[in-house]
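User: Here's a chain of 293 residues. Predict its fold as tokens.
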Amino acid sequence: RYLNAVFDGTDYVYGGLEDLYLSSGKEFTLNGLLNVGNSVTLTPEFFGLHAHRYPGGTTPSVDVTFHTTRSHDYSPTAGSTRWHAIEPSDGTWVWTSLDQWVTTHEAAGRDMIYTLGHPAAWASARPLESRAYGNGSAAEPASMAAWEDYCGMVASRYAGRIQVYELWNEPNLTHFYSGTKAVLSELHRRAATIIKAEDPAALICSSAVSEVYTGAAGLTYIDELLDTDDGDGGTCKDHIDILGSHNYLTTSTAAKCYEGMTNLVALRTAHGLAAKPIWITEVGLLNPLLDLL
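Assistant: Prediction complete.
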């Protein structure tokens, strides 16, 4: 029913692999799922962590080993790292929080995912629209020139330091994104072009949708987005290096985490992206009931 895990300071080593039962009643063996022999070694590269108040906030330290961190919802005392916070008015740049975030995780040897998006009202196509991060924050930018300037400023400042740029957070949810797929596809194209001109080694992660289990709106959204015209003769999938997704475990969806991954693998193949990795850039126990595991 469970695995014994040992963390030796470098690798997570799992032994004694037994049958894993999901709440759907389906039975799998981990050996069968992972196609391995008697043991599985998962290196820290498989593990990432959000730290919303570290560094510079109410969390003094993070005493676990992880390889990757993501900027979304990082909000220390000095403010967040979203577009509306680092460019609160046209041409006024406030780098305090993002500098602190990058410097701290770079010193620890971690890879970083910076989530692009969420303009201030001055840059928003709908500045009076009330959304999660303030008025106008879910709308597309009113000016593509402002978007390109923002992407270019971040990429040039952190070239060689931030490894991955993610295009918007959960755009299938209107409190995070209220624009069209056509505009979002164009935002992918323009961001990828600008960022790679400043930092050719940087990777572009697609918009990470929520809910990719069978029949979920997020799965339909990303399926359609990948084939959406980018405004310049291509499609959104032409501009991504990583296929992103969010996959949460709740009392009703324990088995659907695995289901969601199988759906993404099938979708990736259908779109001719089999060589692209899939990254789950948010995951967690919304209801921490360990019996589900």
